[in-house]
Each structure stands twice: as C-alpha cells, then as structure tokens.
Specification:
Shape: globular
Helix content: 25-40%
Radius of gyration: 18 Å
Oligomer: single chain
Order of helices and strands: EHHEHEEEHEEHEEHEEHEHEEH
Number of strands: 14
Largest sheet: 8 strands, mixed
Strand order of the largest sheet: 5-4-3-2-1-12-13-14
Structural class: alpha/beta
Distance between the termini: 11 Å
C-alpha cells in the first residue's frame, strides 16, 4: 500500500535538476505522472520567482511556486497568494548588526527588473557568486550604504562566501539581539567551498509556507511529501508527513530517519515518486 499523498513539494537545485542544472526526462515524466494521479506538485525553492518560473513552465501543467525560501507563494500565471516580507526596521537592524560582512551581502526585493537585487559591491564575493551576479546584472542596483535601499520591505538578505567565512558570519549573527527577529537558513556546497546564508523574517521558511499552503488546500501533514537536498530544506522536510532526502545530500541530513532516494545525477526525484506515489 502506497501512502495517500495529495501534495508533493519538490526543491529545484540539487533535487529536481541534475548537476548540470538540467531537468532529467525521468523526473519530468514522474511529476507529470503524479499530477495525472491527482497529486498537486509544488516547486519549493530558494530561487526568486523569475528564475523558478521557467522550470515550472517546463512541467507542462499549472502549478504554484513557493519561492525565496518560503517568502512568496505565486502561481504559474503570476497570481500572488502570500508574501512574508522582512520589515524595513528589522532589515535596518540586520544591516547594522552585520556591518563587518556587508561586502558579502545581497538584498532581495519583490520587484521586477533593476533593483530586485541590491549590493554595495561585487568585490567581496566568491568567484561563483560573482558569476551569478553577472548573470543577474540587469536586476542589480549598487547602493552605498545598503541602508539607503531599504525604503520598502525586502524579501530577504543573503550573505555568501567560503564555508569558514559564512560560519563566522552565522555565529556572529546568532550572537546579536536582532537574531530573535530572523530565520537563518544555510545552503552549503562543500565541494565548491561555498556557503550561502539566507536571512528572512522570523518564522519564514519553506516549511512554514508549505504548512500554510497545505492548510489552504485542506490537507493533513500525512498527505504531504517533500523532497530536498540541502539545509534550507530542513524545515520543509520536518513538516512533511513523508520527507525524502536526496542521495547527494550532506551526510548530516541523512541521519534523521527520513527516506533517502537516489542522487540528482540518477533522477532521484523520479525514483522517490515511483516508490511512494507510483
């Protein structure tokens, strides 16, 4: 007997996509099969809506997206169901508290085009992040100091750098008084010596927003399956009645008693869907 799954939440990078950021045909077929069985498929990602949208469109069916690590729920057609933005006052306190790390900071706003990303400079970033910023150059505003850009509530603030640098940044942030107003999410890539620390308002995460969406759909936790690979997926996996961890996830994430599927270079999403949904 397979579990009665009615909602399938799937992370994108490191989970749905392979290591070359392509969508494997097996994963696509599996999600289409789940959709045909009446299971709602929701992409749940740290990506901004604009960069998650092409992946959702490629699935071939209508869906909703939970983007920016849970800050926004928006449909394939641009309808916004929910936003959980960081209050300006909190963002200003965060800037002050993280002054020593501001050269590695990116502020995100829920707007289209230039100004959706704001940095002071690109010189403080890892080369991989600078390449990502270059791909997003049409979205970037340079504002010094960052505080001058905070005239409306941002989606989040992110800090990126080496594993050691971001470990120091996280330890510092957790020692500040503003920490109690925040959610701190880590995404780690040890092979690249890269870590990204996303900072959102308190109680904003993939897990909190997935729970909100499931309640809106009238579903119980037991009817929710989630698949993820990185530490920013933990809250989502903790909420889901059926949590599934990718084979390429960190060993630490495989020690929670959650189901483990194949790696993303082996179409692990397709394997999980086949096992638990059919």
């Amino acid at each position: 007997m397979k579990p009665d799954i009615r909602l399938l939440a799937v992370d994108i990078d490191g989970t749905l996509l392979d290591p070359t950021s392509e969508l494997p045909a097996a994963n696509l077929a599996a999600l289409q099969r789940a959709h045909a069985k009446g299971v709602e498929v929701v992409l749940v990602t740290g990506r901004r809506y604009r960069f998650a949208l092409p992946i959702a469109e490629s699935l071939g069916f209508d869906s909703w997206l939970i983007t920016s690590n849970g800050a926004i729920i928006r449909s394939l057609h641009g309808e916004t169901f929910f936003r959980d933005l960081m209050p300006v006052e909190t963002a200003l306190r965060l800037c002050s508290a993280m002054d020593a790390f501001r050269r590695a900071a990116v502020v995100t706003f829920d707007v289209e085009g230039k100004g959706s990303l704001v940095v002071e400079t690109t010189e403080g970033f890892d080369p991989g992040i600078r390449r990502w910023l270059e791909r997003n150059r049409d979205s970037i505003d340079f504002v010094v100091p960052l505080e001058d850009a905070l005239t409306t509530d941002p989606v989040q603030m992110a800090f990126a750098g080496s594993l050691d640098h971001m470990a120091r940044a996280e330890a510092h942030l957790r020692s500040t008084t503003v920490e109690s107003e925040l959610t701190i999410l880590r995404t780690r890539y040890p092979a690249r010596d890269l870590s990204i620390m996303d900072v959102l308002r308190r109680d904003c995460s993939k897990g909190h927003t997935l729970e909100r969406w499931a309640r809106h759909r009238g579903l119980e936790r037991s009817q929710v399956m989630a698949i993820g690979d990185n530490f920013n997926d933990v809250e989502m996996l903790e909420y889901a009645g059926l949590p599934v961890v990718m084979g390429n996830a960190a060993e630490e994430m495989k020690q929670n008693g959650w189901a483990i599927t194949l790696a993303n270079d082996q179409a692990g999403v397709a394997a999980a869907v086949e096992e638990f949904i059919g």
